[in-house]
Amino acid sequence: MNTTKSGLVxxxxxxxYIIKYTxxxxxLLIKAFTHSxxxxxxxxxxxxxxxxxxxxxxxxxxxYLYENYPEKDEGDYTLARSEVVDTNSLYREISQRGLIYYxx
Length: 104
Fold this sequence. Notes:
Layout: H1 5-10, H2 12-19, H3 26-32, H4 47-68, H5 74-84, H6 87-96
Helix pairs in contact: 4-5
């Protein structure tokens, strides 16, 4: 894992390359990779953003399932969504992409 904010700042272009997205506001990217144990200022951490991101991801996955699997019922959708939008599966994704290294 990255241990300094300056290390993270120097790595922003690497992160953007990995996720295939360029941020206009680099402070959002820094915030997204900063855990509350790293700083006392809760406004500089990702936990609040994580809440919103989880809600958006749940919506996107739900919409995808609904549109692409019309033969399934809401119980099937709920189970499938919970397997995709899950702490363990999301952790595996960021680990496989090497993003866990950048977390402060």
